[in-house]
Amino acid sequence: MCDVHRETTGHDVWHWSKVGLDILVDAGYVDDLNEARYQAIQARRKGKPFGEYGLDGISIDADGVHHGLQAKIRKTRKLRERDVATFLSVVLCRLVQNDWRTPTVVAPHATLTTY
């Protein structure tokens, strides 16, 4: 998902397991850095990535605007509201509140392939 987004948009892209806290703070995803650092340290001690709530990745475009990314693998085309509710909540209540230029469009990407 991250490679496809990078190739099609030219954005800098990070998968959730690789995104730094500085990016999350700049995006508005994290609003309490001390709590975020504590959670990240605890997760690393357990050998896990920092907890993901709604985003699978994040990107930054040439204008410095953050884009929340989420991928869904489906065997059918049916996507339900509850499948994207947390993602939309994060984008609308955190990222857009931090920067009104953050896109709020949910767009399926037709080039994803499953193996």
Structural commentary:
By secondary structure, the protein is α+β, with helices and mostly antiparallel strands. It has one domain. Strands 1-2-3 form a three-stranded antiparallel β-sheet, with helices on both faces. A hairpin with a 5-residue loop joins strand 2 and strand 3. The C terminus is likely disordered.
Which SSEs are present, and which pair or pack?
Elements: H1 2-9, E1 12-15, H2 21-27, H3 33-45, E2 57-60, E3 66-69, H4 81-98
Antiparallel strand pairs: 1-2, 2-3
Compute the number of structural domains: 1
How much β-strand is present in the residues? 5-15%
Instruction: Please give the order of strands in the largest beta sheet.
Output: 1-2-3
Broad structural category: alpha+beta
Order of helices and strands: HEHHEEH
State the distance separating the first and last CA atoms: 14 Å
List keywords for this structure.
115 residues, alpha+beta, three-stranded antiparallel β-sheet, 4 helices, 3 strands, disordered C terminus
Short description:
The protein is an alpha+beta fold and 115 residues long. Helix content is 40%, strand content 10%.
